[in-house]
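Memo to structure team: turn this sequence into structure tokens by end of day. - J.P.
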Amino acid sequence: MEVNDLAFVMGAGLDQKKDKMIELTVLVFIPKGGGGSQEMGTGSGSGSGGSMGSTMVRSASGITIAQAMSKLQEKLPRRIFWGHSHVFVMSEDIARKGIAPHIDFLLRHPQTRERTYIFVSKQKAKDVLGLLPPLERDISEVLRELDKLKIGIRVTTKDLAEMLNGDSGDAAIPWIEINPSEPESRNHQKIAYITGTAVFKKDKMVGRLNDSVTRGVLWLRNELKTAIVTVQPKGAGGPVSMQLLRANSELIPSIRDGTWKITCRAETVDDIIQNSTNWDLMNPEFDKRLKVELQREIGNRVRAALNTVQKNMKADIFGFAEAFHRKYPDLWRKEKDHWGAIFPTVEVSIETRASIRRSGMTSVPGGLPEQEVKQK
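Reply from structure team:
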């Protein structure tokens, strides 16, 4: 197959329509510039060229993704090729109705990639793919770069399949929204950004988490890679911000007298990047108090995640089921069918340990006279 006979799909999206129909939207790469830029249209497709990017958007409807793809092929002079698709966006309507039939296409089709990043969008997937970002070539590149920053949960097609087929069958997917812009801003000044997590009970979305609660989920899943934590110690007169260097957490399950328990042990190593207090943080006493505050903040984030997800949504996106299965395989085989009732009753204890490696480029608060710095 010649390259100039292929339509390279860089991203795809799925929206729910009436009468059980779905709408498949694809973001197609244009190999060469086409002169001046075009404004985004409101019909079945739109395009961009020149400095605005080299992609176009096309849509078609069907009962399944495969049927919609066959109709979409009629609108394109080149054969659709999925091998370069980076992202797959599902609207909230699709997510709440059930994603299992659609994930089957991504896993079964020989061209789709297991490393495709999956997102759930508040707005229509078609609207997300139609955005023209100012910094990247297209919105698929924006979402891929945001996912690589690891600021939230990161889920590929492979990860999602493992969660849906795991011991609990529950899943978590990054939640994206189109960022608000100034009234005079044009479409190409908007992007979609990650702003929380969509929670799934089996294959249906049951709720969403904000950024703050998502941080606690990342601790429990041992997936936290980047973070800035700001605490305000009592009597300090201001906040202190610390940047994460390393983080590690593990889940330790136990079953005693019929009670299912999990211990979450979390460790973190941080650097101080801003000190708005009058403390000299080189003082061991202040350093100790700062560690206590950091440990308390981590514990609060984990508890917020537990209260929201375990108690309210009752969806095991933490991996508790896998932890019990590994340690108690025989008992798990007997009780796995009752996990939905057991999970909300699991007792969770949190053990945190924090250390601060460096205080930054200065030991005393910047901008304060030396006589105002608190040494003890």
